[in-house]
Amino acid sequence: MTATHFATRQHTVVDSPYGPLTLVATDGVLAGLYMVGQRHRPPQESFGTPDPRPFGPVTEQLDAYFAGELRTFDLPMTLAGTPFQRAVWAELNRIPYGETRSYGELADLLGNPSASRAVGLANGKNPIGIIVPCHRVIGASGGLTGYGGGLDRKQRLLAFESGRGADTPALF
């Protein structure tokens, strides 16, 4: 008889220039970063017990990122999704700080040029926003398209990373 493992979920809320961020850990590993009003945000009761302990390195790196001192996150993460979603999220992590890619470019990189809509859907379900930089994906024309955290946040994150908006006041 084998023992059944039940995942331990914990969460905490941290302040950011983009509003409060809810961090979620599964078995002590970052599994979610959600913004207030985010599309596809899981129900609050699924986040587990409040406990800031597993999030020390996450909050340190987020603070450094928001201070303009960190461009690449180096954190253990658990990304729960389909194999295609995880492949899209892995490509998101390859987009350099301050740069963007289109949904079509990501589809090409995944070897499926006709999958730009599917890439967009997977991008929208990214469970670890900001750290897995789904805000760096734009439309083929170069325009801003959907963002689970809202287009205003997407625009502000891109402006921040490009050096055009580091002093933009928080809207939330």
TrEMBL record:
<comment type="similarity">
    <text>Belongs to the MGMT family.</text>
</comment>
<dbReference type="InterPro" id="IPR014048">
    <property type="entry name" value="MethylDNA_cys_MeTrfase_DNA-bd"/>
</dbReference>
<dbReference type="GO" id="GO:0005737">
    <property type="term" value="C:cytoplasm"/>
</dbReference>
<dbReference type="InterPro" id="IPR036631">
    <property type="entry name" value="MGMT_N_sf"/>
</dbReference>
<dbReference type="InterPro" id="IPR001497">
    <property type="entry name" value="MethylDNA_cys_MeTrfase_AS"/>
</dbReference>
<keyword id="KW-0234">DNA repair</keyword>
<keyword id="KW-0963">Cytoplasm</keyword>
<feature type="domain" description="Methylguanine DNA methyltransferase ribonuclease-like">
    <location>
        <begin position="12"/>
        <end position="77"/>
    </location>
</feature>
<dbReference type="Pfam" id="PF01035">
    <property type="entry name" value="DNA_binding_1"/>
</dbReference>
<dbReference type="InterPro" id="IPR008332">
    <property type="entry name" value="MethylG_MeTrfase_N"/>
</dbReference>
<feature type="domain" description="Methylated-DNA-[protein]-cysteine S-methyltransferase DNA binding">
    <location>
        <begin position="83"/>
        <end position="162"/>
    </location>
</feature>
<protein>
    <recommendedName>
        <fullName>Methylated-DNA--protein-cysteine methyltransferase</fullName>
        <ecNumber>2.1.1.63</ecNumber>
    </recommendedName>
</protein>
<keyword id="KW-0227">DNA damage</keyword>
<keyword id="KW-0808">Transferase</keyword>
<keyword id="KW-0489">Methyltransferase</keyword>
<dbReference type="InterPro" id="IPR036388">
    <property type="entry name" value="WH-like_DNA-bd_sf"/>
</dbReference>
<dbReference type="InterPro" id="IPR036217">
    <property type="entry name" value="MethylDNA_cys_MeTrfase_DNAb"/>
</dbReference>
<dbReference type="InterPro" id="IPR023546">
    <property type="entry name" value="MGMT"/>
</dbReference>
<comment type="function">
    <text>Involved in the cellular defense against the biological effects of O6-methylguanine (O6-MeG) and O4-methylthymine (O4-MeT) in DNA. Repairs the methylated nucleobase in DNA by stoichiometrically transferring the methyl group to a cysteine residue in the enzyme. This is a suicide reaction: the enzyme is irreversibly inactivated.</text>
</comment>
<feature type="active site" description="Nucleophile; methyl group acceptor">
    <location>
        <position position="134"/>
    </location>
</feature>
<dbReference type="GO" id="GO:0032259">
    <property type="term" value="P:methylation"/>
</dbReference>
<dbReference type="GO" id="GO:0006307">
    <property type="term" value="P:DNA alkylation repair"/>
</dbReference>
<dbReference type="Pfam" id="PF02870">
    <property type="entry name" value="Methyltransf_1N"/>
</dbReference>
<dbReference type="GO" id="GO:0003908">
    <property type="term" value="F:methylated-DNA-[protein]-cysteine S-methyltransferase activity"/>
</dbReference>
